[in-house]
Give the backbone structure.
Amino acid sequence: MNDPAYIRTRENIAEFGTTAQSGKLLRNAIGTMLNRAKDPRMSSRMMGILSKVRQLDSNSARGERVVSEGILTSSGKQLLKGFDFNNRAALQAVFHAPYSLDTATGVVTISNFVPLDQLQIPEGASHVSFRSAFINLDFVSGEFDMQYSPVVNTVLDMNPTTITLTPTEVPTGTGTQLYLLLIEFFQEVNGVQYPLRNGAFNVLNLIDIV
């Protein structure tokens, strides 16, 4: 491994390792939300995008480029923005309602939402729930703070409703600010709601990154 002929290999191995660490950190920061909406290849898909983010690091030598530098660029943020953690249920394919995001507070508002009109509803679902997350993640130090909104659950019908998702507080610390939206489908049986097909149709999307 000290042979000069393999210098590029050593550089690639080093950068792969730091990118994998950044991916693990991001998954840890998302926390329990990730268990509710992900596909089997989520980690590898994320790794592919983070590798492109790392390549935007223009301050480090080859072999030393890191995600923490690439994510500071507008192009790096754009690569990660809109990432679907469950590619079987992409946000744009499932959710067809306009929403607003206040990046200062993390509040997500869905006004005049009509479930049967504005959702691609899987067979057997009777209810849907929404939850947002506001995360402050420092890719350099590895520190993060995540704040979730309460879950808002509603029946799947034609009645318009306004859904407001307010994180418990603004996350502390410095770093990259991430905003996520989770949509879960349930089937009610005898007054009890059960996750539909173990979450196969659930949506988790990184709706913005600052």
Notes: The beta strands are 100-102, 107-113, 127-137, 144-148, 152-155, 161-165, 176-189, 192-195, 203-209. The mean pLDDT is 92. Helices lie at 7-30, 33-36, 42-54, 67-70, 74-80, 91-94, 115-118. The chain has seven helices and nine strands.
